[in-house]
Amino acid sequence: MATRSATGSEEDVGALFSDCFWEIKGFKHVVSRIDDGAKLTDGLMQLVAERAEIEYKYAKMLKGFSRKWEDAINKGPEYGTTELAMKSLTIEANETADVHIDVRQKLVSSVIENLKHWKSSNYQKAFVKWKQTNAANEGFEKAQSPWAKRYLKVEKAKKAYHIASRNRDQLSKQLELYEQDPMATSESVRKIKDKLSKSETESDKTRDKYKDRLQELDMANQQYINEMTVEFEKCQAMEKLRMEFFRSTLDEYLGYVDITRDPRLQNSFQNIQFAIKEIAVEEDLKRYADQKGTGMAMNWPTFVDYDEVDNALNVGNLRVRDDDDEGKAFNVYDNPPKSNPFNGYDEDSEWGDTAYQAQQANTNEVKVMAMFEYIGAESDELSFKEGDVLIQLDEEDENGWCRGLLNGVEGLYPGSYVQRVK
Which residues contact 4 (CB under 8 A, 6 or more apart)? Predict the structure, then answer.
């Protein structure tokens, strides 16, 4: 036991602090660990909530990425098996977004809810502290109080003994000086001897009392150890519950965020690999040559007699009436119009961006279906259930919000909660 000063009063019990568990108030670290457990639970909830938010934002970005480039590829100049391989990238992005949305949903609905329930079940507030903290502190105080009183008596007796012994030694040295001093009177020497005799008696008396108090403390040590151990084990049991719960929670968290085990992703990447391997460069080039290049059939010019032309013109000049004019001539020698596989693609613009935006602007009505239920938090937000079909009025803004129409009501909704109806 470390030596410390003490007056022996009851107030000293609260003043004697130590890092050793067995000393007075040494259990304070064990009690504060209960408060730390509640704080750690809050911290873990915040950690999971932030990860869920990251999953949501990433999924929203992937959804936007997938929609943009799917349309851009459809309207762009790429063709054949290479086009299919590029489309597989957008399909993978969309499927990966679905996986991350599921991760976010599980983190919020399962992990965070379990943490909230566990905390409410194991920590109850009492004024500014937890009831569990107060109970542990009271238990340690009750177990330590009898021993602490004896300990203070030991400290008081020790102090008295040391003071008496110091006085005795000082008087002994003073007597030696008086006896060596020829100027000292016999009366002064006698007085010093009387004081020394009394101090020796006091020293012996306080020493005996100090030993008695120490013996009393030694006899109480074992009971003190037993009672403090009981209280300590209660705290250990509570901390064990917290650590075991955290272990299972972290394992559950890992099971959700470890998307490498999700079969949907495995299939998505396998599909990409397959599409890339299936790119048939020579076949695509030949198909292009047959449809757009040297492989196309051509009606090469041949000699046509004048009479044949005149007959053809008489038969071929037809009048087609419409609402706008009296008629338009159509010559049989003109090449009939053919459909353009890249309709809407502007060769002078950057691939995808300008054409994509222009096409979207000309779309009269875009229908989207809700993948998840959403309850609007503001008055200008729409609320819908999974499976509801909305009409999208505006493209998703930089914050991920769209403006749409549901049952005649116009409002905002998060773009990551819906998918376009094909």
Answer: 16, 155
CA atoms within 13 A on the CB side of 199: 20
Q: What is the 3-state secondary structure (H, E, C) of 295-313?
A: CCCCCCCCCCCHHHHHHHH
Q: Which residues contact 85 (CB under 8 A, 6 or more apart)?
A: 272, 275, 276, 278, 279
Question: SS3 string of 93-154?
Answer: HHHHHHHHHHHHHHHHHHHHHHHHHHHHHHCCEECCEEHHHHHHHHHHHHHHHHHHHHHHHH
Task: Give me the pLDDT at residue 324, please.
Answer: 47
- Residue 335 region, left (φ>0) first, then alpha (ψ -120 to 50), else beta? beta
Provide the whole-model pTM.
0.61
pLDDT at 84 exceeding the cut of 70: yes
User: Average per-residue pLDDT in the chain?
Assistant: 83
**Alpha carbon distance 196, 173 (integer Å):** 10
C-alpha–C-alpha distance, residues 368 and 420, integer Å: 4
Return the higher-pLDDT residue of 238 and 128: 238
Q: How far apart are CA 206 and CA 415, in angstroms?
A: 85
Q: What is the DSSP letter of 381?
A: B
Q: Are 382 and 376 in contact (CB under 8 A)?
A: yes
- Specify the DSSP class assigned to residue 259: G
DSSP assigned state of 19: S
By the 8 A CB rule, do 202 and 136 touch?
no
